[in-house]
Input
Amino acid sequence: MKVQLRKLAHARSGDKGDTANVGLIAFRDDLYPLLTREVTAARVKEHFKGICKGEVERFELPNLGALNFLLHESLGGGGTLSLMTDAQGKTFSTALLRMKIEVPDDEAKRLGL
Amino acid sequence: MRDKIRIAAGQGFWGDLPDAPVRQVEGGPIDYLMLDYLAEVTMSIMQKQKARDPSAGYARDFVPLMKQILPACVARNIRVTANAGGVNVEGCAAAVRDVAKELGLRGKLRIGIVTGDNIMDRLDDLLARGIELRNMDTAAPLATVRDRIQSANAYLGAAPIVEALNQGAQIVITGRATDTGLTLAPMIHEFGWGPDDWDSLAAGTIAGHIIECGAQCSGGNCQYEWQGIPDLANVGFPIAEASSDGTFVITKHDGTGGRVNVPSVKEQLVYEMGDPHGYITPDCVADFTTVHLVADGPDRVRVFGIKGKQATDTLKVSISYSAGYKAVGTLVYAWPDAYEKARAADQILRARLERLGLRFDQILTEFVGANATHGPLAGEPSPDLAEVQLRVGVRGDDRKAIERFTKEIAPLILTGPPSVTGFAGGRPKVEEIVAYWPALIPKSEIKSRVEVLDV
Output
């Protein structure tokens, strides 16, 4: 079944220059391995097609059940140079939560999804 | 020496809730009040203010705030760390000293002044000696924008703030000190942590990171069960209850709104995070993959297990420079076909700008209500949208071209698609862009200075 990330995680995003960061935090520890497996840097790059013009880096924080993504070249130059409404990337968090991932039915059942 | 202190955050940025520091002082027991005023481009605003008025150039709101809370701070021995000094730390301290005298506090407190961060006057010397101050993001050398620089400051760490506290300063005022250093310094001062106690220094740094954005760790901007977060109108700003063993509890005053729980603290931990293994400050390199959180009662989260590494031999420098001009114009189109109308208006506007021969480095059109925040991820807008705001921004070096653009927005009301409104504010303003240039400098080049004045 397809599951949208907003059912699995919460997030916060911010900026460093023209790079947006999105921290994706699993609602429960047992959901973290699923996120780690499915929400890869490549999938996030594809998800943000037309928005993120640079590379996507991913870092794992198993201690927090969280993944941190860096989306380079995403903020129209960043800081005061950017003309974007969201020049600080604050809403990239919920933009990531729109992503849908494929979860095998037995796993979904085991996780109570 | 105490083995536990309470450090309260009172401002997440210059312009945060004005009453928050007062409520932190009056709302319950605290030992330190930490006030972070400086965002990345704040220094350039202050530099401009100082150019117009040599007595200006610092966070002016800090002075009336001190007038309001100093008597309570002195009576209860609450010490204050604040990077309110901007580009005129001495001026800020003098103003606070005047206020303290007015309050009859002569002889009752000392004010610490931390300077040495401002390298504006040394740039040519540094560049001449081969310190290129390359942009950390683009690798371009600073020489490419040398004639447009407006301010240049190194980020100082906790050490000079500790020195001021050690000399008995009740209030420590800095210029461009790191926000994390303002929280870490009281811990070093109270607990006697050594300069190579990397784990403790990293713990204090991460405590600083958690509380430096004010209520953003105590219920503000929190996605986790946000509808259930109580009484944000009365939101409690965070308090770090730090122990000498490098563990700490994030909490807030009893009776305040908002919420401190494991998810709210996690959200702030990942905010503006880069590589979590190496969060670099002047004081240490903190490892966010070692942070452990556990609930410790209502509105209390215990943080433990933090590891750190040796500090690097460079300091970050924050440089601001003029980078042209920009303006943003908006109009609102109503149902039906609001999005289609806004798009048509954009095309008309662009055709007129083209015919005028105006050249911009960038033109950006957004449709607020349809896809301004999530872009193509928002999908095709519904023809039934109640309204859409057309928002067009332009940027470039030619001020005249930007000014001409600002005259092309209002005419769209009478010369473009129908059912349009939202122009009560007049022509868009032309804004001078002050851009941010992050760079690194060898630590050996920066000598911080500490002075402690009696009131």
